[in-house]
Automatic annotation (TrEMBL), chains A, C:
Top-level taxon in the UniProt lineage: Bacteria
Ion transport is among the record's keywords: no
The protein's name in its UniProt record: Dihydroorotate dehydrogenase
Residues making up the signal peptide according to the UniProt record: none
Residue sites binding FMN per the record: S19, K43, A44, N97, N125, K163, I189, G215, G241, G242, G263, T264
Residue stretches in coiled coil: none
Family: Belongs to the dihydroorotate dehydrogenase family. Type 1 subfamily.
Major place of residence: cytoplasm
Protein species of origin: Metabacillus herbersteinensis
UniProtKB/TrEMBL annotation, chains B, D:
Lineage: superkingdom: Bacteria
Subunit record text: Heterotetramer of 2 PyrK and 2 PyrD type B subunits.
Cofactor, how bound (note): Binds 1 [2Fe-2S] cluster per subunit.
Keywords for this protein: 2Fe-2S, Electron transport, FAD, Flavoprotein, Iron, Iron-sulfur, Metal-binding, Pyrimidine biosynthesis, Transport
HAMAP family linked: DHODB_Fe_S_bind
InterPro entries listed in its UniProt record: Cyt_c3_hydrogenase_gsu, Dihydroorotate_DH_ele_sf, Dihydroorotate_DH_Fe-S-bd, Dihydroorotate_DHASE_ETsu, FAD-bd_FR_type, FNR_nucleotide-bd, PyrK_electron_transfer, Riboflavin_synthase-like_b-brl
Function according to Swiss-Prot or TrEMBL: Responsible for channeling the electrons from the oxidation of dihydroorotate from the FMN redox center in the PyrD type B subunit to the ultimate electron acceptor NAD(+).
Protein name: Dihydroorotate dehydrogenase B (NAD(+)), electron transfer subunit
The organism of origin for this protein: Metabacillus herbersteinensis
Residues engaged in binding [2Fe-2S] cluster: C221, C226, C229, C246
One Pfam short name: DHODB_Fe-S_bind
Length: 311, 259, 311, 259
């Protein structure tokens, strides 16, 4: 009752860890069997290795956290050689999160990484607000987002999902431009730009000053955006932003997400993904559903429950 | 193996101003090995506060399946923790990281254990292990002021113990490094935990002999997945090589990472 | 050590209730002396009376709440006759929050309401996301925000503060346009657009579907925006968004606010404003300050504490 | 006068499935007057959950400075409330709103008290007050099912009490309105609290006699400032006139507002 079919992705269930909150899976593979997961969204990969920002890189906020990791990663080559190869031992599709400072970077990374046998989809991180050079603009200007999408689609061997930034006036406009440019799906939302100051020094706690806000605090914004976008595009959405409980999973899918990703909650409870996968069938039954696909977009699609169907 | 367990509070004591000693019991203790490892605590069920708090393991009692932590109640999380009473639960993730290695030291050799403030607690279990092996231990522990001095008596039982306070209200006035220099303490290996400036000073002064430093950094996951807690390696201080405090550390050999 | 001078406003202290979270003051005047307050931001006033949206109008979220009141108010005439006149008994400046669906509405309301003797400033609510017709656009397009500001400045008898919406890609651009158009100050932030769904029905909890997210959850976004805007404009900012404690007040002022407003926290603790006013001097002293003005913009203005000064 | 007080839990009892009876003590009780008023509770210190929860006053004991509430533990807030033990604190704002007026009823007249589910609690204090005045009381209380029936015995002591359950597992099967009609109950004034459909049905059937209805609505402030809880007046159902459930209500004369 949990399987989900999306472009390039045959998911056992709609639950996966979000990019940057699961590394390349090693740490979690030490504590549970990651083959249970619907998929794994790996940490952003750039063409060259990056160290990222100076520490402190995280700060807690009310019901949320700020991060400014700065896209630390070992670079395309090592990700393919060490991380993706190592992940092949698990029966789980990988969604490769791709980042860069210019279109060519994205194209280069996508071209290579999409050849890896276990990479079943690309997730274009056009929204990461942490890197000073570039990054932020791609996700905020519809034409540029579309241009990037087209360029990446041209070289990708697998379907391309584009990850939307919530820090925009009109999320629907950007989503539509990306759809038109040929994206196979959307993932949303990335973090909200935020800041926290140290009471004693007066200075920002993060050495990068601003950071991305994630966690339960941003859930209402994510739900609103998915609700709006899912009604305006015909490509599927993987939803994220503050998911902690099985009820949150259901709320995201009601809003219009076809699957969901769990980010910050992995830090609070490293076993959260398998726990949600375990809990979902019973909760769906309680609410009167036979298959998770029945609930997608329920907030706007159906006036009443649809007739049951088994895929 | 890293486990997550709702452990039971056995005892909670205020041992100095805002300093609490908390003993909890559960199966997770079976997984604990080296002194210097830490646990990651969730102090409430809800999301206020949201994140776990890293706290060092101060003592391990394998027979009773209990371990003890010592922490300063300061922010939201540690204040809530300090309100826990015997019988209450604490959500513990651990044991995490790599602790202080004790293998290289032989019976009869001398270990210098240096702690600053809230860095003192992990030295207790370490000291016990060393003494068990027949290693001679010397402790130098520094605090801000008299009100916040703790663990002096416990450490004294294990070896010579020197206390410093910054304001001179107890023990010698000054920093731990002042004391080590003034007393011309002799030792084969140093183990230290405390504020970064203290660790830096120690590294500068005494790293011609083996020295292990336990670092602190703001953490997200605590298990090595989020890249919140990285530091540069000294071999490549401006490059892209790194170590994670949570999973490669928190204890590093002096000279390994940039502090 | 708490007095603050702003265009049109001579504040005893920098603490005031935010618009919509204090009605027109009557309910709070029943439980404490509202003359203690720095100022009062009254509920949005429109030219005609409005009933607002159907209920439910509020929903709780993690560390926040959604509201879709829909600008319910008795209309310009009654606000002046009943509410403002009644408020004259208190020694406290009033900041009149003005809303509308077209520029003429704002002009009409401002023209009349700014004549009230105790209205010392206007706060243009160009950001309220709750009213379907108009409202939202003013705050998201720099040119329109500027046009509105100019029109209102032309007729206002008192200084005009413009309240910024956080639901924009580039808050600095809008702030600058508004400054150029002659605004005397800014207030920020209004609520973030959000949504929450009912698990059982699948439908949005708010009858208006979307609502404005307020409370501690949005504080990091507010701090970031005030930090950015205060460095780019030369007019003062009244900051708001999730303030609950005296440390929050200080954080907002460090970020660049000259005074602050407290919204949602009034519902959690109706005595919050006087409690913050009481607690502020001691906390400032603890942190080493002699006057609240020393902390404004500390996050970016000073590398170290400035020399003391008494105004 | 509305006060805010950290009141002390005296007693907490589970009286039916997920239904708890909570007695607290404090000075705030001195301010309580009419039956049917409510309080607004903050169940934790932090912001999880953020908002207060409105709960009716079920019984007032002025001598002991205590009052009692009965509530269903369902969401985050009420579940946390149900974990409070004697000696714990609850942050109470109140008393709020206007309760049931009892002045017009004279000794010997009959009052019909109708409650549905979690709307039953405020009827207890009301019934006591009416009985004190010599008014004859009849209670009709309806529940979903046997497991969640409560207050039957307490009300029986005060007057004739009929119980209905929707599924017929206890008392008469059906809705309270079915019972009133079937038994042809006679009365001078109705007082009711319960789900909106029940109140609507009562209003349609019996509002030729004086009837007071206690309404529920999602609340922000609870004191009349935020306009979260307004309803239209029946005199101007599509216009801009309104009443606030929290400060003009929660009890309204039938016909006053649109329900
Ligand atoms: C490996 C390790 C071991 C530690 N062992 C101990 C110990 O044994 N005893 C002890 O008292 N303290 C210890 N600390 C420091 C302790 O983690 C912080 O004091 C604590 O997290 C602060 O939480 P709070 O709720 O008081 O503060 P808050 O201000 O509410 O914390 C907000 C956020 O900042 C983080 N944070 C704040 N200060 C620190 C800090 N100094 N280091 C890391 N994160 C911080 C918190 O974890 C939280 O995420 C250790 C830190 C690390 C990294
Ligand atoms: C005047 C009044 C008197 C009440 N008296 C009682 C009583 O005596 N006993 C009792 O069990 N319940 C009573 N209720 C209902 C009670 O307020 C809700 O059941 C409670 O707020 C739900 O909180 P939660 O933490 O369980 O749910 P959550 O789902 O966590 O609540 C989320 C938010 O929605 C609000 N909410 C949810 N359900 C309701 C509801 N039915 N009415 C109003 N707000 C709601 C909550 O207050 C909170 O703000 C009363 C409501 C009102 C308005
Ligand atoms: C520490 C951290 C690192 C992140 N790194 C990335 C990243 O590399 N690429 C990316 O697209 N998103 C990244 N994100 C965003 C998350 O994938 C996710 O979109 C966001 O955190 C919202 O989900 P959450 O509230 O469940 O965490 C990161 C988030 C966090 C907290
Ligand atoms: C119930 C409610 C009603 C509000 N009504 C108004 C309004 O009429 N005009 C306005 O400019 N802002 C209004 N706001 C926004 C607040 O003034 C404030 O900008 C926002 O809530 C953020 O502050 P807070 O987090 O402290 O609540 C309202 C907010 C709430 C919660
Ligand atoms: S805290 Fe996440 S990698 Fe160290
Ligand atoms: S709850 Fe705020 S006006 Fe009624």
């Amino acid at each position: 009752m949990l399987n989900v079919q999306l472009p390039g992705l045959s998911l056992k269930n709609p639950i996966m860890p979000a990019s940057g909150c699961f590394g390349f899976g090693k740490e979690y593979a030490n504590i549970y069997d990651v083959s249970q997961l619907g998929a794994i969204m790996i940490k952003a990969t750039t063409s060259e290795p990056r160290f990222g920002n100076a520490t402190p890189r995280v700060a807690e906020t009310e019901a949320g956290m700020l991060n400014a990791i700065g896209l630390q990663n070992p670079g395309l080559e090592k990700v393919i050689e060490n991380e993706l190869t190592w992940l092949e031992q698990f029966d789980v599709p990988i969604i490769a999160n791709v980042a860069g400072s210019q279109i060519e970077d994205y194209v280069e990374v996508t071209k290579e990484i999409s050849k890896s046998p276990n990479v079943h989809a690309i997730e274009l991180n056009i929204s990461c607000p942490n890197v000073k050079t570039g990054g932020i603009a791609f996700g905020t200007v519809p034409e540029i987002a579309a241009q990037l999408t087209r360029a990446v689609k041209n070289v990708s061997e697998v379907p391309v999902y584009v990850k939307l930034s919530p820090n925009v006036t009109n999320i629907v406009e950007i989503a539509k431009a990306i759809e038109q440019a040929g994206a196979d799906g959307l993932t949303m939302i990335n973090t909200l730009l935020g800041m926290r100051l140290n009471l004693k020094t007066g200075k920002p706690i993060l050495s990068n000053k601003t950071g991305g806000l994630s966690g339960p605090a941003i859930k209402p914004v994510a739900i609103r955006m998915i609700y709006e976008v899912s009604q305006s595009v015909n490509i599927p959405i993987i939803g994220m932003g503050g998911i902690q409980t099985v009820d949150d999973v259901i709320e995201f899918m009601y809003a219009g997400a076809s699957a969901v990703a769990v980010g910050t909650a992995n830090f609070v409870n490293p076993f959260i993904c398998p726990e949600l996968i375990d809990a979902l069938p019973e909760r769906l039954k309680e609410l009167g559903f036979d298959h998770v696909s029945e609930i997608v977009g329920r907030s706007w699609k159906y006036d009443r429950k649809t007739a049951h169907y088994c895929p | 193996m890293i486990k997550k367990e709702l452990m039971t509070v056995i005892n909670q004591l205020r041992i100095a101003k805002n300093i609490f000693q908390l003993t909890v019991e559960g199966e997770l203790v079976k997984e604990m090995s080296e002194p210097g490892q830490f646990v990651h605590l969730k102090v409430t069920e809800g999301s206020a506060p949201l994140l776990r708090r890293p706290i060092s393991i101060s003592e391990i009692d394998k027979e009773k399946n209990q371990f003890t932590m010592i922490y300063r109640a300061e922010g939201a999380g540690t204040q809530l923790l300090s309100a826990k009473k015997p019988g209450d639960n604490v959500d513990v993730l651990g044991p995490l990281g790599n602790g202080f290695p004790t293998e290289q030291l032989k019976a009869g050799q001398t270990a210098l254990l240096v702690g600053g403030g809230i860095g003192v607690p992990p030295l207790l279990e370490l000291s016990k292990r060393l003494v068990e092996k027949g290693v001679i231990v010397k402790h130098v522990i520094g605090f801000e002021t008299l009100d916040v001095v703790f663990l002096e008596h416990e450490l004294k039982r294990l070896g010579k113990t020197y206390v410093t306070t910054v304001d001179g209200t107890y023990g010698s006035k000054g920093f731990v490094t002042d004391l080590i220099t003034n007393y011309e303490l002799e030792f084969d290996t140093t183990f230290a935990c405390g504020p970064t400036p203290m660790l830096r000073a120690l590294e500068t002064l005494y790293s011609h002999k083996p020295m292990y430093l336990s670092l602190e950094e703001r953490m997200g996951c605590g298990i090595g997945a989020c890249f919140a807690c990285v530091c540069h390696t000294q071999a490549d201080p401006d490059g892209t090589s790194y170590k994670k405090v949570c999973s490669d550390g928190p204890v590093f050999l002096a000279g390994e990472v940039v502090i």
